[in-house]
Amino acid sequence: MAALKNLGIERAAIRAAVEAMIQANPGKLIEQIVPTASVKRVIELAFEEARRDNSNGVGTGHLLVGLMLEKDGIAAKALRELNVMIDSVRAELARLQDAGVTEAVRGVARPAILARHLDLADEQGKSITIDIIFPPDYSEQQCTAVASRIQSAVQGRQS
What is the model's pTM? Predict the structure, then answer.
């Protein structure tokens, strides 16, 4: 993740810290991954963090903050051991967002400018156009059908 890298924390250091904690408590490992109350809490905290910064979705940065807020988790302990503080992570995430750095979702970056265009259209009522990127396996007919539904939905909203 860019935020941790920019804070001088390398992936290998995090991995080593987590592995050391796991080796120190081998009895806590289980064969099958089960969503524990702690995992559910991390996800809830990530959603709260996304709401806090008015994001349209939950990203890896929100999950990172959620992991750090769940203080008893291995990830939070490993990051504290590496002197990573939540305030510095939040500040770096905000800096990245302000710089227009976006996360890749399924290999396609979500441009921050798209959200700004949509907000501008809502605020000022101006007509704007956006390019829709469809997965490569969509046929032309599927693309046309989706675009038509989007256009109908937008026109219905304007009525």
Answer: 0.55
